[in-house]
UniProtKB/TrEMBL annotation:
Organism lineage string: Eukaryota, Viridiplantae, Chlorophyta, Mamiellophyceae, Mamiellales
Keywords noted in UniProt: Repeat
HEAT repeat intervals: 343-381
Any one Gene Ontology BP term: regulation of translation
UniProt cross-references to SUPFAM superfamilies, sorted A to Z: ARM repeat (SSF48371)
Protein's name according to its UniProt entry: TOG domain-containing protein
Organism expressing this protein natively: Ostreococcus sp. 'lucimarinus'
PROSITE patterns: HEAT_REPEAT
Gene Ontology CC terms, in alphabetical order: cytosol
């Protein structure tokens, strides 16, 4: 491959982006079929020393000099695909050659689709390259923070994701998180900018929370809590995520105080209740073991209250949160968990909800709980939910709800080992 590309002039290299991208896709499909259980699809040829070099040359030239924005976007996506298909060791020799040009290009004036693709590519490089990207951390951080205020939401959200990934390589996190919190605290910051900034804060806490000082943890929690009442659904969602990530780094007393504030639901507007329900859901999913060890009662009570809210997003969030916590309990105690007998009727009621989003969340919750409890463990609770779950599997109008219900029933009756257990329950 290197010998072939050596005969092609630099100006002509972008013309080969499409065919090389197709070849990469076919090679990845072949690897995926051969390794269905794998979560990473590595192309053997690209894992060889210098195996990536000729392909990188083609894609980089496409990013830098392709004539149209669409062609540059395609070249960037091809580069991302190539980086995803090799090992960290094989990538190491190409880190400088790839990262430097991408940082320069993302700072230029390009359409949002091109910028988004480049930011995604940089995120993949951070994941794959690891410590080899350490020299680029200051430049990358400056670039990502600047993109948080881009006019296009796709660029802002890609930048927010990349900032979080970068924190795995950055030990001096406090100054950054202080600036991000100051941005969302300002009354002059637009809701769209707040949305992406809260997502960035969530990523910073997820990957670099141990390096954040206690005062900034408290500030992040307070700012995110206040944003749960925002009129912007996107800002509420990202604030919920930020709150859930900062929550882990609070002392026990402060975590309890946060949950008490979330549980004090009287007099809240409908949108505020949606934000609170989503926050409870995100906290439960991100910190399930901590919640079940130290804050189970107050959190479960708040989620059960949200499950009867008049707003469908609140009920769906409650179903997801209850499913996450019930699964944690079921993993430890199986079907004998003391919480399951109280939570199964609540989730069962949500299976009959008029809104597809809520039914999907409830069937998904049952699937997660049954899987966590283990085969046959849930049989003592069948009376409280199985009839409704089976009805969803057979007759629900939504194919997605039916699929989740089918998989839950399949696991509950241990059908992977035959029909005997199912027939026994049916006779009973």
């Amino acid at each position: 491959m290197g010998d072939v590309t050596a005969t092609i002039s630099r100006q002509e290299l972008p013309e080969y982006v499409e065919c090389v991208s197709k070849a990469l896709t076919l090679a990845r499909d072949k690897v995926r079929r051969a390794n269905k259980a794998s979560h990473e699809y590595l192309i053997p040829a690209l894992c060889l020393p210098k195996g990536l070099a000729p392909i990188v040359q083609i894609f980089l030239q496409g990013v830098l000099s392709a004539e149209s924005a669409d062609a540059r976007e395609d070249a960037t996506k091809g580069l991302t695909l190539a980086v995803s298909s090799t090992t960290s060791a094989a990538l190491k020799a190409h880190i400088i050659a790839i990262t430097g040009p991408l940082i320069r290009v993302v700072g230029d004036k390009h359409p949002s689709a091109v910028k988004s693709a480049i930011l995604e590519s940089l995120g993949v490089l951070i994941n794959k390259g690891g410590i080899a990207l350490k020299p680029f951390v200051p430049q990358l951080q400056t670039t990502f923070v600047k993109c948080l205020s881009d006019v296009q939401i796709s660029v802002r959200m890609k930048a927010a994701t990349a900032i979080g990934l970068l924190m795995a390589l950055q030990t001096r996190v406090d100054a950054l998180v202080n600036d991000l919190i100051s941005t969302v605290e300002s009354d002059e910051t637009e809701a769209g900018i707040c949305e992406s900034t809260y997502k960035a804060i969530a990523g910073v806490f997820a990957y670099g929370g141990k390096n954040i000082a206690a005062p900034n943890v408290t500030r992040a929690v307070d700012a995110a809590y206040a944003a749960l009442a925002s009129s912007s659904s996107g800002e509420r969602a990202c604030a919920s995520l930020a709150l859930s990530r900062a929550f882990l780094w609070c002392p026990t007393e402060e975590r309890t105080a946060v949950l008490e504030r979330l549980n004090a639901g009287d007099g809240r507007a409908a949108e505020h209740r949606e934000g609170v329900a989503d926050a409870l859901c995100q906290i439960s999913r991100a910190n399930g073991q901590v919640i079940m060890n130290d804050h189970a009662s107050i959190t479960l009570n708040a989620l059960v209250r949200a499950a009867s809210d008049e707003r469908p997003p609140s009920r769906a969030a409650a179903a997801r949160g209850l499913g996450a916590l019930a699964a944690i309990s079921a993993t430890t105690s199986g079907g004998a968990s003391p919480y399951l007998s109280k939570l199964m009727p609540v989730l069962s009621k949500l299976l009959r909800d008029a809104v597809i989003e809520v039914r999907y969340a409830a069937t998904r919750a049952f699937r997660v709980i049954i899987h966590a409890a283990g085969p046959s463990e849930m049989s003592i609770h069948f009376e409280s939910f199985m009839n409704v779950l089976a009805e969803c599997a057979v007759a629900d109008k939504s194919s997605e709800v039916r699929h989740q219900a089918e998989r839950a029933v399949y696991r509950a009756f241990n059908l992977q080992n035959g029909m005997d257990e199912a027939l026994e329950h049916l006779r009973a």
